[in-house]
């Protein structure tokens, strides 16, 4: 019996000259290499430790760089040497930080101490309100219908609070370690930032020098688009968050809400996270206003609604625009997924990270369409 002859030219045409098949084989080989190396812990462990060590300083430096680099470029265009513009900007930042420490920190400290001092009174007020609700006929009917027992609920809450306090006490060492790492990262930022502001323009050319000439133009285009997406998002989101905090502080002062500065600062920081941040920021303000009086609660809700309308209709469209071109539902899903995977850091970096991955994926898909020929239109 004679076996069918395998024609080398046909095999070469179907497999060796098929770019799509070679692309899949390359991905398979890369995946196998990662799988095998992952089984050897000492190979990836130093890399993981290195990434964890430098990630936070690089993120903080990148955020500050995107905020300050336009100012340095502007001063350089005004015929000021770049090194002198950077030094002048550093002096201005040190002066502003000193002013904030001398003027704002005492106010924040006073409000925090006052909140701690008044917390027992707030707890007593909440307890009195709860007891008045229990004595209400409507509440009694609800209690009989649902079988709700306030004493059991109180005991459950107490047990959970006790376990939470025990857990917090057990994890105090890790919390102190996190604070120490954060402070060290902040201390390193000015040094990295100085060299990045001074030599940052040379960084793309340095990266491109390691790539083949045929890939440099496309890679430079991808890097430019990524830089535009990240810089626009960081600058815009920080400016929007500052505006929200400032407007809420003015509104809280107008209605006379206690701890207005702390609540506004919390709102400004949490507003960095799109869509979910405002929902988190309103919670402490609701508690303080509800404990104060029902009228104050209503005033606080009105102020919050007005600020959100101003932010949504005027501030964000003017500052952020539609540069990211990401649907709000997609942003919410991305934030939730990143939060489950990477925690707080994932929530903060979810949107810019998705924007970067979207740029890379879109360019890879365009390259695949051109090289594969599978998407050609036939007339």
Low-confidence stretches: 167-173
Number of helices: 13
Mean pLDDT: 75
Helix content: over 70%
Write out key terms for the chains shown.
0% strand
Short summary of the structure?
The protein is built from 13 helices and no strands.
Task: Describe the model.
It is a single chain. The protein is mainly α and 379 residues long. It is built from 13 helices and no strands. Helix 3 crosses helix 4, helix 9 (213-255) runs antiparallel to helix 12 (294-319) and helix 11 (276-292) runs antiparallel to helix 12 (294-319). It is globular and about 75 Å long. Residues 167-173 have low confidence and may be disordered.
Q: What is the fold's blueprint, element by element?
A:
Layout: H1 8-16, H2 19-38, H3 41-77, H4 82-134, H5 137-146, H6 150-170, H7 172-199, H8 203-208, H9 213-255, H10 260-270, H11 276-292, H12 294-319, H13 328-372
